[in-house]
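Tutorial sheet, problem 5. The four components below are modelled jointly, 442 residues in total.
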Amino acid sequence: MTETFDIQLRSSSLSLTQCYEFVSHEGCGGIDIFVGTVRNHTAGKTVVALDFEAYEPMALAEMRKIAVSMMEKFQTVKIAIHHRTGLLKIGDEAVIIAVSAAHRAAAFAACRYAIDTLKETVPIWKKEIFADGEVWVAAHP
Amino acid sequence: MTETFDIQLRSSSLSLTQCYEFVSHEGCGGIDIFVGTVRNHTAGKTVVALDFEAYEPMALAEMRKIAVSMMEKFQTVKIAIHHRTGLLKIGDEAVIIAVSAAHRAAAFAACRYAIDTLKETVPIWKKEIFADGEVWVAAHP
Amino acid sequence: MKIKILAFGIAKDILGNRIINLEIPAAATVGALKEHLEQIYPDFKKLRSLKLAVNQEYVDDGLVISDSDEIVIIPPVSGG
Amino acid sequence: MKIKILAFGIAKDILGNRIINLEIPAAATVGALKEHLEQIYPDFKKLRSLKLAVNQEYVDDGLVISDSDEIVIIPPVSGG
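Model answer (structure tokens):
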């Protein structure tokens, strides 16, 4: 049986093509892909790099839970969720979520749900590195 | 000045990487990409191939109008809309829409708006080819 | 006046040609041309919708056609 | 009983270590452990939220901790 999910946490560069090819399927008519990249600024300050740290086994488990919910809530066919760890530079891909479905509404809704939920539940932490210091994102109110 | 839009209508294969690289930008944090592919069935019948015909100058003009509306309605940074013409086989990409924005909500909303509007306004016609005949999609009520 | 009409998708199948030449009254409107087409080719009435584009723009039925216009029959679109 | 706590992100900076060992009363709850941590390390009170994961699951404050549990401090996450 072919797998329905491809969940990865990795320190090497993410591949859009790899995610796309995993979810692409003869029965699907719509694929939505979200790519989260490292922005060069935040609240007016210039970001030099980002450092992502993950509690790996739980992060993978929570990403798998998201994929299961996507299957249950929306009519999705295949799902790839790849998240990067370690030091990233500006423009690097931090996360790629790809979803295929027979119809586009399900693909869009599932992909949006996935990134929103990932940002709330998956134990991954992002440190923004500026020229003059660094800060753990969203740690404080 | 770098272009904000990349609008293409072409008979050669579409490239996800090309669309992604066009919209990728150091100032953007979220990219949403929709890929419409050729499905192997429709209403229970097996599709062998699809043939796309376009009224090319107007199709390009209408795609450009969509990109302009996306910029006006949402806070998008860069937009690629590539649509294919001619004979496509199962799994081929018929359309790719990629949108970058500083924040993901705008990227998702703009991408969804683009594909919904494209399907309503852009003069492109799709003929489904079955083993035992062919039909212009959505022509009849 | 003599006009040239271009057709795509199922409209080309209905006309049996990519391009037809038609004689219409001077100052005819888009609405009148559509009715005329539906009379000569009743299959147009079976479509989900029928639009004309003039000079690469969707236009209202009230628009008056001139013989230099690029007129295209737009059956229901199905891109994407 | 003796427990080992793992910390990530800003929690590691607050503890000054990836792992700390702590002596807590037997049958202590997650809620009690959180209060205990906030007393020893007041910087935890400044965070937007503070959660504990036990055996790789988010848990309620009422859960009773056992000394074989894998306990991890989860400060506000910021993946994606």
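Marking note: Chains C and A do not touch (no CB pair under 8 Å). Full credit if you identified this.
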